[in-house]
Amino acid sequence: MTNNMLKEIEEVLAFLSIPEKAAFFPKFFKTGKGEYGEGDLFLGVTVPDQRSVAKEYYAKISLEDLSRLLSSKYHEHRLTALFMLISKFEKTKDQSVKDEIVEFYLNHLQYVNNWDLVDSSCYKILGRYSFENRKEDLLRKLSASEEMWHKRIAVVGTMFYVKKGSFDLLKEFVTQNLKHPHDLMHKANGWLLREMGQKNEPELISYLNKYYKEMPRTCLRYAIEKLDEEIRQEYLKGRI
Questions:
Q1: DSSP class of residue 35?
Q2: What pLDDT, in 10s, does the model give residues 185-210?
Q3: What pTM did the predictor assign?
Q4: For residues 186 and 218, is the Cβ–Cβ distance under 8 A?
Q5: Closest Cα to residue 140, out of 121, 161, 155?
């Protein structure tokens, strides 16, 4: 049954493959030598199609099957697996099942290894679980990791906190990783600061006034994107 289920999902995704997308995605997700997605393989399936497949199969597939799909060399297999895992997590009311799904997610982080895989899953599973169970140390451990994707999972994982009006964990992680060398962290930090500002602009202004001169330019630009143009220019020109 396991092999039949996996084969069916893989065949459906192969059928949905678009050659033009398969050619484009490796460039878009930076899979060249030395790039952050080096060696990743693509079928050329759109995200809406992957979501449709996930919706069809998430209730039928076991975590054992998901483990095999999530460890696939194909990017779309991994993302579709994560969509199914999110649905399983969101649909259950059983705390033991949620515990099991979070443990599964943490045990498969090596396959959550590109920005879309991180951003689509981490706050909906790990961020929500940490918030609802007061287990911030799960995210703190990742923020302190040497692995960039772990750090991004921690920062983006605080999205659930931000949406609930809780900002301290985000500020802690951004400050900890403010000078990370990779622009994918600069973007993540700036993006989540911007989200904080959307919820509470004075919180963002207060944080910016303390740290903006230390921020990488990309992080600052992302963080101030929704502020009034006059204030944006003051930050960009270092006049505050």
A1: S
A2: 999 999 999 999 999 999 999 999 99
A3: 0.95
A4: yes
A5: 155
